[in-house]
């Protein structure tokens, strides 16, 4: 399926992974709306390599043929109903993550569901979204059903590093485009409490960190705030575990935006347990901005 429809300049292709699952349908709807807003080309990718790797007997081959026919028909029906018809619907003989990454460049946006369908459901719930988020050369959006469907608030995790710039830019632009309020959330890492006599030290240290963080965050937000004066911006500095704080904040958000790189608590976000906590436990779509 293809078309020659001309799209607006300056924005890369939106690449949506599709496998027929409910979250994939949400990802297609989200990606199509985003592509329409950005006047970007839209590609829908169906990965078939996962099915081929499981061929052992003729029954497996027959299952693959039937499943591929069903999935192709389902994908064509889904894209026909999408807000913006895609430029192409592509069957890629690769696993889900490579199929999405191979055609991407730094200007692209990859959109995929948080949970897959059938045989690949456990993969898309974890390793695929994690792999794509870590290795894609572009912004990645992991779509799931929000816990508060009517909530439009955008939450962006921020620190004072240059690595957060793409996240702040994406968040401000999305908030302005959709008219959503924006919360800029900075997390001060906490640790397990020590003996009782240490509580005063912990309290004093947190107060000092808070006083140091607030002006840095204000400075980091200043340029985007000036560029998007209509955005209703709320600044928050919260103590806790980064993954827990961001996941909790997502319960009352329509979109959670984080940077692929950062400093301090955010620096290792996509490299271990924090990144997994955000990708797996967030209660709304998550944007990994580059």
Account of the protein in words:
It is built from 10 helices and 10 strands. It is α/β, with parallel strands linked by helices. It folds into 2 domains: 14-143, HUPs (Rossmann fold, 3-Layer(aba) Sandwich), CATH 3.40.50.620; 154-289, HUPs (Rossmann fold). A 10-stranded mixed sheet has the order 3-2-1-4-5-10-9-6-7-8, with helices on both faces. Helix 7 (165-178) crosses helix 8. The longest helix is centred in the C-terminal third of the chain and has 29 residues, at 199-227. Residues 1-10, 118-125 and 267-272 have low confidence and may be disordered.
Coarse shape: elongated
Number of domains: 2
How confident overall, as mean pLDDT? 79
CATH class of the largest domain: Alpha Beta
Largest sheet: 10 strands, mixed
SSE diagram, text form:
Blueprint: E1 14-17, H1 22-38, E2 42-47, H2 49-52, H3 58-80, E3 88-92, H4 96-101, E4 109-113, H5 121-125, H6 127-135, E5 139-143, E6 154-157, H7 165-178, E7 182-189, H8 199-227, E8 233-240, H9 242-250, E9 255-259, H10 273-281, E10 286-289
Parallel strand pairs: 1-2, 1-4, 2-3, 4-5, 6-7, 6-9, 7-8, 9-10
Antiparallel strand pairs: 5-10
Helix pairs in contact: 7-8, 9-10
């Amino acid at each position: 399926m293809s078309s020659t429809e001309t799209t607006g300049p300056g924005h890369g292709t939106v690449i949506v992974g599709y496998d027929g699952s409910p979250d994939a349908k949400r990802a297609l709807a989200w990606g199509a709306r985003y592509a329409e807003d950005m006047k970007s080309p839209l590609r829908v990718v169906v990965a078939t390599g996962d099915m081929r790797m499981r061929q052992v007997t003729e029954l497996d081959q027959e299952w693959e043929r039937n499943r591929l026919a069903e999935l192709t028909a389902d994908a064509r029906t889904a894209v026909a109903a999408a807000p913006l018809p895609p430029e192409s619907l592509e069957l890629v003989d690769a696993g889900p993550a490579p199929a999405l990454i191979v055609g991407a460049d730094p200007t692209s946006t990859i959109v995929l569901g948080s949970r897959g369908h059938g045989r690949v459901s456990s993969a898309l719930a974890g390793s695929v979204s994690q792999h794509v988020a870590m290795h894609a050369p572009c912004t990645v959006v992991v779509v799931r059903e929000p816990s508060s469907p009517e909530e439009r608030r955008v939450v962006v995790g921020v620190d004072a590093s240059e690595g957060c710039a793409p996240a702040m830019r994406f968040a401000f632009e999305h908030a302005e485009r959709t008219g959503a309020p924006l919360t800029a959330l900075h997390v001060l890492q906490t640790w397990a409490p020590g003996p009782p006599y240490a509580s005063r030290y912990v309290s004093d240290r947190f107060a000092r960190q808070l006083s140091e963080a607030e002006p840095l965050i204000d400075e980091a937000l200043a340029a985007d705030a000036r560029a998007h004066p209509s955005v209703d911006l709320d600044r928050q500095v919260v103590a806790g575990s980064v993954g827990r704080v961001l996941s909790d904040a997502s319960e009352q958000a329509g979109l959670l935006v984080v940077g692929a790189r950062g400093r301090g608590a955010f620096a290792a976000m996509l490299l271990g347990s924090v990144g997994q906590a955000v990708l797996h436990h967030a209660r709304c779509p998550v944007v990994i901005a580059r």
